[in-house]
Amino acid sequence: MMKMKKLVCIFTAAALCGCSESETKQSDAVAANTSTQDLSAVIDGLAAKQEEEALAEKEAGEQEENEEPETEPAETNVKLTEWEGVVDIDLTEMSSTMIYSEVYNMMISPDEYDGKTVRIFGMYTCYEASEDKVYYACIVQDATQCCAQGLEFVLNDSYVWPDDYSENGDEVTVTGVFEVYEEGSYKVLNLKDAVIEAHSPRVPG
Asked: pTM of this prediction?
């Protein structure tokens, strides 16, 4: 603004040297009016620019608040092993209702499944009955999630407890050889020599 005033003064002094008093006054008025208009335009432009920058900063801040921070998937040490061989009964190809029915049939007629390779997807459950006995099972619920069936499994010797095992509640795919063993007065369904696979069910529900 000081620079503008100096320019106005210089312009006025030059006019006084070569013009009459009336012409000088007229020139002063024109110069002052011109400078005022120019200065007003500059101020308006700066104000508009500041408003645009403030609006842009506000919008950027709101966008950052709305954006959810990206979370990296939790690390897992579960050992995943691909089953080598034929899978006779792949329960991951079935709906949850069909899986529930098939596991129920295994309980009713276990001899029909003896020695067959079974793949199942469900919730991993581990129960430590004692220091020497730990039970592992894959639990499957029906479509209404009101009933559940499960298969016990024993992972093969390549797995180290607890480093290579899942956490309770994890969804897992387990593949192993079906067998029935007796424990006391009970018959227990089991998948022996089993592995945990990186495999998901293909049929939802």
From this structure: 0.60
